[in-house]
């Protein structure tokens, strides 16, 4: 009976938008060229601008000579402290400290591009499109390879990468092949896909419950169960904030591990 | 194959293939989630044991735990991407 009522309501029912509608945004500037700018690109720029302004304001406040940091400055200092103590010192050791600026930038940039997912009115994580995660992963890939070759020499880097110590002689060819594939191909791929898939999955999850809530909002006896998907939507929004922070953390920590591993060969 | 199937199911061949790919995507993602689910459970469980035994090393254990989760989770996420590719691409 309920279904009949819903069908009679006309235009009701659950309409889940196709994935193109969710992910592909129309261009705003420079339409139909390769430089087309759409919402995703604008958000990418906005995140870069936010990170820049945040650190600029914090640096200004730090130069003003107050002893106790307040507001923006204390937030930024907490972020830097977190990356320094919980990521770099734990994974790279003291010799990784020169990488603090790079990793802090990566952390904040990935965090801001992720957090757009739950900001009302924007609600789109830039990293749900493959472009940005792929670029960031490629950047980390180039950096850790260059760092490895620079600090160990070309031969030394590949030797320590392909032949980990303590492997039986007859297994060496197999291990070398596996190590080569996992370091050169799987690392950047999984780094990019991890960020991308997490944000896309979160975005689809939020859309599912939002669409469900919206469909139940139309007057029908089914509206009684509206609080359930809506509660789920609220809870998932909180969960997605956690995921946004966690993915920024994981991306940064993996970048730190890869760069640190390239700097010092395994013993 | 798809012709016989669509005759049996009394649908157009395209619909039949869509249905097959939807089933494949669902089963594939479900299978891909089993291993990482068990793996993450083991990682986090052991990390909690370690933290409970030695609370002063909690920071280091937590960092390593997230690393382990990140590596374990990769397979599930690749499964999710394959799901999206089969279902929508």
Structure notes:
- In chain A, 71% of the residues lie in helices and 0% in strands.
- With 267 residues, chain A is mostly helical.
- With 89 residues, chain B is mainly α.
- In chain B, helix 2 runs antiparallel to helix 3 (58-88).
- The longest helix of chain B has 41 residues, at 13-53.
- Chain B is rod-shaped, with a radius of gyration of 21 Å.
- The two termini of chain B are 22 Å apart.
- The mean pLDDT of chain B is 86.
- The interface between A and B is medium-sized, with 21 and 16 residues.
Largest pleated sheet of chain A: none
Number of helical segments with 4 or more residues of chain A: 9
Please give the number of β-strands of chain A.
0
- Structural Rg of chain A: 23 Å
Order of helices and strands of chain B: HHH
Greatest interface and its participating residue counts: A-B, 21 and 16 residues
What's the average pLDDT of chain A? Answer: 87
Oligomer: heterodimer
Outline type of chain A: globular
The mean pLDDT of chain B is 86
**Helix vs. strand class of chain A:** mainly alpha
Range of strand content of chain B: under 5%
Helix run count of chain B: 3
- Largest sheet, strands/sense/barrel of chain B: none
**Helix/strand structural class of chain B:** mainly alpha
Q: What fraction, in percent, of the residue positions of chain A are helical?
A: over 70%
Order of helices and strands of chain A: HHHHHHHHH
Radius of gyration of chain B: 21 Å
Quote the distance from N terminus to C terminus of chain A. Answer: 70 Å
